[in-house]
Amino acid sequence: EKPFISVADNYAVVADLEGNEVQLYDENGKVGDYSMPYPLKRVQAADQGVFCVVLEGDGANYIRLYNREGKILTDIKTQIENNGYPLAVAISSDGQKMAASFYCVDGINSKNVLSFYNFGEGGKGQSGNLVGTYQFEQTLIPKVEFMDDETVCAIGDNQTILYHMKDKPKKIRQIEFEKEIKSVFSSDRYIGYICENEEDDVQAGKVKPYQVMIYNKNGRLKESFGWEKLYETVELKKNILFCYTGSECAFVRINGMEFFHQDMGQNIVNILPTSNRKEMVIVYSTRSVRIRLKNSFHTSEIEETEENQDS
User: Fold this and answer.
1) Parallel, antiparallel, or unpaired: how do β-strands 240-245 and 151-155 relate?
2) What is the pLDDT of residues 41-67, one digit of tens each?
3) What is the dihedral of CA 295, 249, 307, 41, to 10 degrees?
């Protein structure tokens, strides 16, 4: 099982990747259960209870948008030999726009194609609502994000490209990297990267093993600091980096100050901020708990309360 949660404002989508079941929740509880005809590869939540899924069928993949009633709003069928394999899909918070990254192989040559769709007024008259494509031969793009409804961030293995998309996409900035990118995270305001520093410099004590670089959505460097440990998951929410691997987690401010680090005793699926900056919700596979930091500078002092026995 691969439990996965995607959160957008007042909605959360819970799914078992490689399985067929999707659950939608709002602030009052469960909204609905939905059964997919093919195994799930990716899931993303948006406003108004709209959610996007990528399904892997026999010889074809399906990118679908559903509303909270389970009605299919958009259904895009892609075949690997024609369109490539979908690596990443992102939808705008209003569910009107979508960006998808496809890995394509043609004989011995390969390329990455970035496709943009507009399901609103800006996409009317366009075949399949497709309003723009970009091709990359030297870059693999495994992550695409809408930072807001008009800013798209395409994160590649050696560069990141920012697009403005009011109706159709237009490239606004390109960020290139020479060092190997080990991890990427983003929010509605920032894009962050964790790169590996040169081993000789690390051994000489000149730098820490990793370097964190945080850019704003105009592509300008906001923060840069050294980093000791590489976590399996790093997410940026409300200007806090939530880092976790297995049962171990840490909370870090965007200036590099770590203010919480602890082994929680169970494998962590997700960490969610709350309206109270000292309270977080830790999601495990069978339950979730709310923790309260008694003192943000004494990492071992926390209070833990059960949030939901059935989540």
Assistant:
1) unpaired
2) 999 998 889 999 999 988 899 999 999
3) 150
